[in-house]
Amino acid sequence: MASTYNMDRFLVMHAARADQWREVLTAAEGWAAGTGDRAAVEKELADIALVEEFHAYPGLRLMAKLKERIGSADAKAVSSMVRRIADAVLTNSYAQQSDADPSADADDGFPDVLPSVVSHRAGHRPYFEVLLVTPQPPSRWPAMAAEFRKLRRSEDEFIYEPVIVGSFEDALCATLVNPQILAVIVAEGFAVRSIHDAPILRSILDKALGKHEGSASALKLAAAIKRIRPELDLYVTTDRDVETLAASSDSACVRRSFYAVEEVLEMHLAILEGIQARYETPFFDNLKRYAERPIGTFHALPIARGKSVFRSGWIRDMGEFYGINLFLAESSATTGGLDSLLEPTGNIKKAQDMAARAFGADRVFFVTNGTSTSNKMVVQALVAPGDIVIVDRNCHKSHHYGLVLTGGQPLYVEAFPLAQYSMYGAVPLQAIKTALLDLRDEGRLDKVRMLDLTNCTFDGHMYNTRRVMEECLAIKPDLIFLWDEAWSGFARWSPFLRARTGMGAAADIEAWLADPASVEAYEKQQKALGAKPTREQLLKTRLIPDPRKVRLRVYQTNSTHKSMSAIRQGSMVLVKDVDYPKVESQFHEAVFTHASTSPNQQLIASLDVARRQMELEGYGLVMNAISIALRIRTAVKNHPLISKYFRILGADELIPEAYRQSGFKDYLAPGTNWGDVVKARDEDEFYLDPTRMTLVCGDAGFDGTQFKGLLANRFNIQVNKTSRNSVLLQSNINNTRSDVAHLLRVLAEICQEIEEGLRSGGEGGRKAFASRTKSLMHDVPDLPNFSRFHDAFRKDAGKKTQEGDMRTAFFMAYNEAQCEYVPLNGAEIDKRLASGPELISANFVIPYPPGFPIMVPGQVLTAETIGFMRKLDVKEIHGYEAARGLKLIRPDAVGKKP
């Protein structure tokens, strides 16, 4: 089992299973053709047999039938049977047969058809699998599976197949490996250990649960499964005191408890009800019903019902392109079964509540203007004029503008630089603690309202969110946290990423606060630190907060459209705030300020549907996205020509060693297994999301913007952000292996063209290429840090920290008489840098790339910042007009009212 759970197996297991069956097929076809033998088939089948124990298809009966045919030496029959199984696994066609038994003979049960991906198949019922953990011997398992199949009814909306295991370890393996498992039934009395060898899994379990043999608690297994996949419905059966078990606080993760198997039909119905609870989409379901009704529209939305479109001789093509349902489902009304996004009380409210359950939040707000609006809503709701917000200077511009609107004072903290690639990483915890301790030392800690960070960053840096929040709460127990997770909303659905999200960490902290041992841990540390710990002690110590004082206040914003199946601009605000009732009214005011009074109905529906999809298949989709990313990384690294000109940066290149406390190097480092990934997730200060792939293109002679344009215009490949010498690739739940193949073919073609160009260009061409790559990869400008706000915008600031009144400076720029323009490359700038008066930025200046503000209103510009600007060779710089120069606040205007 060790080989099955290696890094090259487990993290790509979801996609590798189909590949493994293709290997079996190749061996079987070789045997049938006389070029191979039976032993090769048996070897390939043995390699996959273990994984197949955790899937309903092909299942125990079909696998036994296949082995029987191999034993009869009928090579052609074996080849035919393996082909049908391999095709079914690859296309998922077995799940399309509503009433077939997936473990039936492949020659009888499944036609050779591809599953429909566009049209709705008549009679199709969504298929899933149920894990049954039992103490019964394997000889009884086929009969148990048959009993569940007998419970099927024609009126059931869903259809499922049981997967049966007999131990704690096998149950966790099945949960990890099989994304089609959506419910788990745990019967008490099962064994702990698997009959298979699982050293990596066992070492992790022993660390988490302690070494023990014999039987294990059903509730302990249920809790372990819930931590891996919180979306699953868990059921427990016992032949003991079921009433006591059901009332236990430890059974909070269990949907329902049953006494033995006295109510098998009720168990069947409970499973289907649990799936229905996730399948329901209140707003989308209602919108479909609304579209089917005959509606007379006398409101301000002529496009509703589509008459103005389909009756037109000039714009009918739009209707033909989008289809009638888009228009039938449009309305500006909030009555007649619809609901108001601004003040939801009906199906939108219910949809938001279901999203809160799915994402582990106390409440969720749908936003239809993108996460730029979500961020501004949260900042406006929670930050008052004069409040200090500790914020990553490299965060999205919406955070900066939110502070301008509210009058909050930004205290910028710097991320670690990756100057070679013209990008920043994330903000070290040491910098955050230093800022808080500086404010504490000056008696100004009460002015700090919020810590505002981006997680994950554009380039995949994920914070140790729990550690950040706990150590900050140890210094300021009521600090509010805003995690901008625009790029990582999908992380909830992976056990390798969830703990690094705001809501994932908040749930862990919430559980820790409720544990009496938390107070003991705090008091033990206080005793060790002494009555008056030094600043150096506090900076070096992993601080524990006082559970009795902590006010856990966590906000997370997700760009649902960036990583889930939501329409563009679909976003969510996730809230876990014990003091939310105190800010509820102002939060609603922020919603009224920023949300449209005419939200798009289809956008709201897509948020509802995205939640449904992620609750039912998000685990498998995210595992596939991770496996796609690892395939791309591996293929680029191992291809002899592509790797000559391109490479994807590993964790060891994007995260300095000091922040990788576990010793983790990279996902592709020799010997790395998924146990190492778990260790890095739990221990490292920063952790790399594997789906974010920084592809260095500078060695191929391309800057990021140039290469992005080449991929888009010539090869129809769209990528994410760029830097001076790289582009960012992002795998997501939409990607397929075909996408990977297309990308690699394109990279190989570009490399071949480079080789040909170097061969035909002679010595001059080779020198020009070398000069170009040197400029891109080595002659890179240093990244500037934030300097300081001008003293005129720091009237109530302290001496140690650099917060400032950015709002006043921002609005001074509205008065042109108070501003001046100075040419970037002129002599005046150099003169003023040397002898004054100071250069004070009047606005935000944001070059793309790198995409963060290198100047903000009220900032004093330094030679470092000006030097960086002068070396930039990007085409897009927001807030800067080259023809006029830098917009500055006039020295004689400083201190005047805007």
Structural notes for this entry:
45% of the residues lie in helices and 12% in strands. The protein has 36 helices and 25 strands. It is globular.
Describe the global form. Answer: globular
Unreliable runs: 1-8, 106-122
**Beta fraction:** 5-15%
Largest sheet: 7 strands, mixed
End-to-end separation in angstroms reads 70 Å
Count of runs of 4 or more consecutive helical residues: 36
Main β-sheet, spatial strand arrangement: 6-15-14-13-11-7-8
Radius of gyration: 30 Å
| Helical residue percent band | 40-55%
The helix-and-strand class reads alpha/beta
Average pLDDT across residues? 91
Care to count the β-strands? 25
Please name the defining characteristics of this protein:
single chain, 898 residues, alpha/beta, 7-stranded mixed beta sheet, 5-stranded parallel beta sheet, 36 helices, disordered N terminus
Summarize the structure.
The chain is α/β, with parallel strands linked by helices and 898 residues long. The chain is built from 36 helices and 25 strands. The protein starts with 6 loop residues before the first helix and ends in a 9-residue tail after the last strand.
